[in-house]
Amino acid sequence: xxxxxxxxxxxxxxxxxxxxxxxxxxxxxxxxxxxxxxxxxxxxxxxxxxxxxxxxxxxxxxxxxxxxxxxxxxxxxxxxxxxxxxxxxxxxxxxxxxxxxxxxxxxxxxxxxxxxxxxxxxxxxxxxxxxxxxxxxxxxxxxxxxxxxxxxxxxxxxxxxxxxxxxxxxxxxxxxxxxxxxxxxxxxxxxxxxxxxxxxxxxxxxxxxxxxxxxxxxxxxxxxxxxxxxxxxxxxxxxxxxxxxxxxxxxxxxxxxxxxxxxxxxxxxxxxxxxxxxxxxxxxxxxxxxxxxxxxxxxxxxxxxxxxxxxxxxxxxxxxxxxx
Amino acid sequence: xxxxxxxxxxxxxxxxxxxxxxxxxxxxxxxxxxxxxxxxxxxxxxxxxxxxxxxxxxxxxxxxxxxxxxxxxxxxxxxxxxxxxxxxxxxxxxxxxxxxxxxxxxxxxxxxxxxxxxxxxxxxxxxxxxxxxxxxxxxxxxxxxxxxxxxxxxxxxxxxxxxxxxxxxxxxxxxxxxxxxxxxxxxxxxxxxxxxxxxxxxxxxxxxxxxxxxxxxxxxxxxxxxxxxxxxxxxxxxxxxxxxxxxxxxxxxxxxxxxxxxxxxxxxxxxxxxxxxxxxxxxxxxxxxxxxxxxxxxxxxxxxxxxxxxxxxxxxx
Lengths: 324, 317
Description:
Chain A is mainly α.
């Protein structure tokens, strides 16, 4: 079915990207550019959908009122960079090249590159079922990525930028340190290569998932009810993860879309309701600095964490992992 | 209604002037490879509508009919798989692991199958009967389109990531020459003892001496000249231009431009229907244009995302 997204991506490709590529003698990338155009269109649609739904929700039932929203403005920038800017290009091209290299190598050596559809042939021709299985695997792997990003001190030093926000809104989902984004990308790539994820095949469903991730950060008193909160992560559930008491290496509610993994591993906490957010242990620049100031502060904190880890090792001190 | 009436009169007049009698609408199936949709659209040609989709793993780009006409081979590049379809029904007969099959083409004598690996910078030559790899040629970068000499002795491959065209001697399994031919060489065709190369980075088709690859002359076509197709009656060569959005008809004897058709949405591959119409994939429009070369009008058939290779099982011979 031809969608508006395809039409928009086609228009960008034909009227903007291809003339530019032709002008700058880069026509060999024309095919790949179309894939990127699709990413940009779906990214913009994600932002628009999130804005259209979450903004009224935040106005209707806000958890917190703030005298000004300066700190939120930086999160808007993070979102734009992450979803419609350079990051999708790097991610798309990077993942594509990694997939080509690995799968071609395996094929050359008589191996069949891994895909879910090859492992479970009945999935071929059932795109929705296939996608749901991909979602389950990726969401579970993301649970562990997120949990480890809290447990490992240097990684937490980077991830703390995400938690530093005291004015958490639906824009905060993409507020991450660039190095944290790189690690997440590598994590995703490793898992995706193992199961052969084809993101371009399911752009609309990816859009819906990213929408729910943004919604879970909304400054809104929204719960899906006792049962609903146990089926899908709500703003109430995820806010507990961002609460000041949960910031740091011992947190709860690590899941991105499904709370099942937290329930399975005993890290779910449904009792905390609409806590204040932020990370009291982080320096102020992480919370209220501009984009570059936040990135620099995150890098400094990361450097300190690495040095402390080295010092601990040389002195035979405590390991860098917390108990949980 | 008035428009339809005027259009019909125009069409009839043009057909009479050209001595062209439109045949009954073509029957059969069109197979369209949706490279960004992981599927093959099956189109009922008589209805001009998609009737179903064949799922593939990842990214199907090009196809080729086996010399005996029994199998339609479809290359899935990212899926690293070659599919063997029944060209009559589209039923999948076989799936074979093949590294990065982008363009695929059988030699005229049916002995070789050449597979360009655009993403992996390699050209693989397979024994067409056994599908065993005879020789791999690492060729940087982005080997894309290919064409054989009529005696099947040489295969010419454009290196889209460079400005070069390579000639591979299939009897010695060696690269004979690898020379610059334009900015971004794409489509390749053997024609009347010469190799024609469409230059996607420019607006030209280069006429190349097959002996050493030197350019004898250039034809100005349209910006983003991409791929060349010989009409079934061998009278015309059609060249698609991606940037300008045109399909240009050249006289096959003189190589003079006969007519230029506007085809928006990144025209790419062409196949010819028995009723004289050209089925042209429109990469960014998710459609196939069905062009009547006499009237110049085209209808559009909606298919999947980024349609690339196309095959009509009711093709004219």
